[in-house]
């Protein structure tokens, strides 16, 4: 009867465990991660033997580990990472160096290991697995400085540990390390990293531009990219987890954190693959190893105590050096304590080449289970404290403007791109749904239009749902389209109205169209008009052109917030194009607007030189914002329209700020493509 061999029954049992265990563990106030580990140990081959740790479990477990590293890299806020990059270097050095320095002498002089075996054994403690990272993400602290430091330090420590493994294997095989070995290792690693960081983002932007709104194609490309990078890692002398992390960093800007694609990746990992990884690790526990002899107990105690002490000391040293709070230091400790993938890799290789015996293998299994149990427990204790501190800091800042986004959808054509833009503008902290509205003119065809609107809006809801964003739908009817949309915006108290837009003056329209002109006259919401051509997520740099106008202070700040929120979501720096006098007048207001992003000023000779400046500076992966007033003078308006017509194949969005009717702003957003 046991072990179960029917793959359908196995999968059904595992999914039941993934579903039920979080509820059971919540009853005893323990993390779900611990429950999955214990379930794997109980049902695995070394206990009840209900499940076999066969190739399918190993495969899905490895995929889960890849997802942990990949998601951790994707969720890194590159602005915060750049700001605290030195923190990652400091911590990565400490969490790698302290275990090596402390564990090697003990292994040499107390356990009587040879120096090569002692160094390799010590290297086990210097690496770690971000097992508790999903907990940090769910607590909303993934962008906290402590978590960012731990994630960056993980890349440094794991890479160093695995490179040390490669050096020791070379020494064991050849007796010495030759100059050829260093050139081969350094050259292959440099080529591998270069291909990922320079080739992968370009390939991703090229493909995203061609598949457009095809979410399935985007998701399959991401999966293909991360696993190809992981598969090629051995050729560069590193492990797949390093390749997965590098792939995530390379595609960080290509996948907006609040977008549909990101939600699909996180859901796939956290719902299926990561739980499989935890159960697979739990299956490694064999309680019988504790009764194989006194030598095993010595190794178990040595390995478990050494990893707990050295990782704790590394976190505490980081707290003193970087002035973290006690809770932040404990979060760093919990993130970098768990041992799994890198440990198994080092132990397996060390055993195969004769540097380790079975006692080290058995001791490592117990150590893995001990650290994988303690790490999430510590995160469950101190993670909420860090989250609470973040909330308190946010509460101390000036209260942000209330945000409600209404999206006007005439049809499903281009709806995906319009909703994507709305999601980039959406501040998740407000927890407001996106309001999807279809406007209908009250005429003879109104009944037919109303009948088709419901089906169209229901399909649009699924686009929001795929990004895990709630949506509410309604249909508005009035004597004109503009009046219908204006009435809906007032009903939902919209702060932003996002619409699709096509500027076609050949049909005798006003510059923006009759519907838009009516909205500008009758609403005070921030109006966002978007002409989709390419996915906005392909932007690398955000350029802001500011004309020489006297802006209303409140309206200017609101426009700056729109620009910087999109830039932050894209992980892109901001370059401001304007003359020196204009920048002097608005620099402080622009830089102080939240959120904070990297900003540089590029002097513009004159407003008339804008087109040439764009041709000289911009690339196919840039976004251009042009700030202007609703009632801008004719020369300013003509230049803005001329720029829009000069680049007909670009995405164009116009954002009309909603402060005061006589001082609203217009923001033109244009990713330029030659």
Shape: elongated
Number of DSSP E strands: 11
User: Radius of gyration in whole Å, from Cα?
Assistant: 28 Å
| Largest beta sheet: strand ordering | 3-2-1-4-5-10-11-9-6-7-8
Q: Tell me about the largest β-sheet.
A: 11 strands, mixed
In round numbers, the mean pLDDT is 81
Search tags:
674 residues, alpha/beta, Rossmann fold, 24 helices, 11 strands, 9% strand
Protein topology:
Blueprint: H1 7-27, H2 32-43, H3 55-74, H4 78-83, H5 85-109, H6 115-126, H7 133-138, H8 145-174, H9 179-211, H10 215-231, H11 240-250, H12 260-282, H13 294-322, H14 326-337, H15 341-352, H16 358-396, E1 405-408, H17 415-425, E2 434-441, H18 446-465, E3 471-478, H19 481-491, E4 496-500, H20 514-522, E5 526-531, E6 541-545, H21 553-570, E7 574-578, H22 580-592, E8 599-603, H23 610-617, E9 622-629, H24 634-646, E10 652-656, E11 665-669
Parallel strand pairs: 1-2, 1-4, 2-3, 4-5, 6-7, 6-9, 7-8
Antiparallel strand pairs: 5-10, 9-11, 10-11
Please sum up the structure shown.
With 674 residues, the chain is of the alpha/beta class.
How would you describe the overall organization of this protein?
With 674 residues, the protein is of the alpha/beta class. The protein has 3 domains: 7-396, Na+/H+ antiporter like fold (Up-down Bundle); 399-532, Rossmann fold (3-Layer(aba) Sandwich), CATH 3.40.50.620; 534-674, Rossmann fold. 61% of the residues lie in helices and 9% in strands. The chain has helices at residues 7-27, 32-43, 55-74, 78-83, 85-109, 115-126, 133-138, 145-174, 179-211, 215-231, 240-250, 260-282, 294-322, 326-337, 341-352, 358-396, 415-425, 446-465, 481-491, 514-522, 553-570, 580-592, 610-617, 634-646; strands at 405-408, 434-441, 471-478, 496-500, 526-531, 541-545, 574-578, 599-603, 622-629, 652-656, 665-669. Strands 3-2-1-4-5-10-11-9-6-7-8 form an 11-stranded mixed beta sheet, sandwiched between helices. α9 crosses α11 (240-250) and α19 runs parallel beside α20. The radius of gyration is 28 Å and the shape is elongated.
């Amino acid at each position: 009867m046991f072990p179960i061999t029917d793959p359908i029954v196995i999968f059904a049992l595992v999914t039941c465990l993934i579903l039920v265990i979080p509820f059971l563990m919540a009853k005893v106030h323990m993390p779900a991660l611990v429950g999955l580990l214990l379930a794997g140990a109980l049902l695995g081959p070394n206990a009840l033997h209900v499940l076999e740790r066969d190739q399918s479990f190993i495969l899905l477990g490895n995929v889960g580990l890849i997802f942990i590293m990949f998601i951790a890299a994707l969720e890194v806020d590159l602005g915060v990472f750049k700001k605290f990059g030195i923190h990652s270097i400091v911590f990565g050095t400490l969490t790698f160096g302290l275990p090596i320095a402390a564990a090697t002498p003990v292994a040499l002089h107390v356990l009587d290991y040879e120096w090569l075996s002692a160094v390799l054994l010590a290297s086990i403690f210097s690496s770690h697995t971000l097992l508790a990272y999903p907990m940090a993400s769910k607590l909303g602290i993934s962008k906290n400085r402590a978590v960012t430091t731990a994630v960056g330090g993980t890349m440094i420590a794991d890479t160093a540990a695995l490179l040390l493994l490669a050096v020791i294997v070379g020494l064991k095989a050849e007796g010495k390390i030759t100059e050829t070995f260093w050139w081969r290792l350094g050259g292959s690693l440099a080529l591998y990293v270069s291909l990922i960081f320079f080739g992968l983002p370009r390939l991703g932007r090229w493909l995203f531009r061609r598949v457009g709104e095809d979410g399935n194609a985007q998701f399959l490309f991401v999966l293909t990219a991360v696993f190809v990078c992981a598969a090629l890692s051995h050729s560069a002398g590193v492990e797949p987890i390093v390749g997965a992390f590098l792939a995530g960093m390379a595609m960080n800007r290509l996948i907006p954190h609040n977008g549909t694609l990101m939600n699909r990746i996180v859901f796939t990992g956290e719902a299926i693959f990561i739980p499989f990884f935890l159960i697979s690790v739990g299956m490694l526990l064999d309680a019988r190893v504790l009764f194989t002899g006194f030598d095993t107990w010595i190794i178990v105690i040595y390995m478990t105590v050494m990893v707990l002490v050295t990782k704790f000391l590394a976190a505490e040293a980081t707290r003193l050096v970087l002035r973290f709070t006690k809770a932040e230091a404990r979060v760093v400790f919990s993130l970098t304590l768990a041992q799994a993938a890198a440990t198994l890799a080092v132990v397996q290789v060390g055993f195969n080449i004769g540097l380790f015996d079975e006692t080290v293998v058995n001791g490592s299994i117990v150590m893995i289970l001990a650290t994988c149990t303690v790490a999430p427990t510590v995160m469950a204790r101190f993670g909420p404290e860090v989250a609470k501190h973040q909330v308190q800091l946010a509460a101390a800042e000036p209260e942000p403007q209330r945000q409600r986004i209404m999206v006007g959808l005439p049809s499903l054509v281009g709806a995906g791109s319009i909703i994507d833009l709305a999601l980039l503008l959406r501040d998740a902290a407000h927890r407001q749904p996106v309001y999807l509205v279809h406007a209908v003119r009250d005429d003879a065809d109104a009944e037919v239009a109303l009948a088709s609107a419901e089906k169209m809006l229901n399909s649009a809801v699924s686009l929001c749902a795929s990004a895990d964003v709630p949506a509410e739908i309604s249909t508005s009817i009035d004597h004109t389209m503009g009046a219908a949309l204006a009435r809906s915006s007032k009903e939902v108290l919209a702060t932003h109205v996002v619409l699709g837009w096509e500027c076609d003056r050949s049909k005798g329209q006003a510059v923006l169209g009759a519907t838009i002109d009516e909205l500008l006259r009758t609403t005070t919401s921030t109006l966002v008009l978007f002409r989709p051509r390419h996915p906005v997520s392909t932007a690398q740099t955000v350029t802001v052109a500011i004309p020489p106008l006297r802006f209303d202070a409140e309206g200017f700040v609101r426009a700056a917030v729109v620009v910087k929120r999109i830039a932050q979501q894209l992980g892109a720096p901001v370059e401001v194009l304007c003359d020196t006098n204009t920048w002097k007048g608005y620099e402080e207001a622009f830089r102080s607007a939240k959120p904070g992003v990297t900003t540089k000023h590029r002097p513009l000779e004159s407003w008339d030189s804008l087109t040439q400046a764009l041709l000289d500076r911009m690339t196919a992966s840039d976004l251009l914002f042009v700030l202007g007033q609703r009632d801008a003078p004719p020369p300013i308006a003509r230049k803005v329209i001329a720029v829009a017509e000069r680049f007909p194949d670009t995405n164009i969005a116009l954002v009309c700020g909603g402060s005061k009717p006589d001082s609203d702003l217009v923001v033109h957003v244009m990713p330029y493509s030659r």
